[in-house]
Amino acid sequence: MTTLAERAAAAAGRAPEAGQDDGLQLPQEYVDQFPAPDPMAGYEPGDDDPEMVPVHLAWLRVRKEIRAIAKGEQYNGGGTRFNFRGVDTVVNTFGPVTLKHGINVLPVRVEASYRDTTTSKGSKMRECTVTVTWQIIGPKGDDLTLQTQGEALDSADKGTAKAQSVALRVLLLTSGLTPTHDKDPDASYIERGNEAPARSADSYRDEILNPKTSQGRLQQIGYELDNLRMMGAKVVNEVGEQETLDSLGRRIYGERAGGAA
After folding, report:
1. Which residues contact 24 (CB under 8 A, 6 or more apart)?
2. Contact call for residues 212 and 250 (beta carbons, < 8 A)
3. What is the pTM of this model?
4. What pLDDT sits at residue 185?
5. Alpha carbon distance 251, 40 (integer Å)
6. Domain with CATH 3.30.390.80 in the chain
7. Where does 64-175 sit in CATH, by number?
8. What are the per-10-residue average pLDDT scores of the chain (261 residues)?
9. Cα 118 to Cα 131: distance, rounded to the nearest angstrom
């Protein structure tokens, strides 16, 4: 809140004199009658300064200039492979354009939660989930307030920073409605050839009973059997009795889970 001297000077159309601050504050009920002086009132744009437009228009200009960001990076690990748009790629694309149009993107509140977890290989990790409140401030000082979330795993002290970086990427891509311009997967049609025959119930039985079959693989086998509608298929189990693959898989998984504990 400004002082009475500053409000009076603004109302008279002049700047307050040096040392004129009397320390008195304007009562709240009179704030609307004596608005605070416009901080941009005496602003004179320089040659390289952005055009003084509202934040929603400046942000629209950013979106028009960026157009799209392709999924040019690839993750390939743990048997999984996919293309993605990384944090650095997104920030490097948005950074110069937001600067050109006078846009500031600031985190004004971060709410974080944590929990300890382990990887499939037993490594200790810490999971961080953040909710970040952002202000997108335009060249005139008006702003948009948005929220995004991010989460990350880390074995040291970088989980919070990683989660906030993810939240920033989500903010820029979602509020920018940034497309990839990738080819639509429905745009092409490939006719299927002769597919490999489905596995037999006995082959699944043998894999389930194999001591080297991991618990993760046992779960995956369950999904495969469900998709193939083979849960109810009966096989001869390790003691020579008839048992469904569903029952066999659940029993063996439970026995190995108990043994691991």
Report:
1. 3, 4, 5
2. no
3. 0.56
4. 53
5. 73
6. 64-175
7. 3.30.390.80
8. 57 54 64 68 76 95 92 79 89 94 96 87 88 96 95 89 95 92 58 59 92 86 84 92 92 81 46
9. 23
Decide: 110 and 130 in contact? Cβ < 8 Å.
yes
Residue bearing tokens 């001297």: 5
Sign for the pseudo-dihedral over CA of 53, 54, 58, 64 = negative
Token pair recorded at residue 25 = 């504050």
Rounded Cα–Cα distance for residues 5 and 12 (Å): 11
Residues written for the chain? 261
Query: CA Rg, the chain, in Å?
Result: 31
Distance CA 260, CA 159 (A): 29
Query: Do 69 and 113 form a contact (C-beta atoms < 8 A)?
Result: no
Q: What are 39's two structure tokens?
A: 């901080």
Helix, strand, or coil here: 30? helix
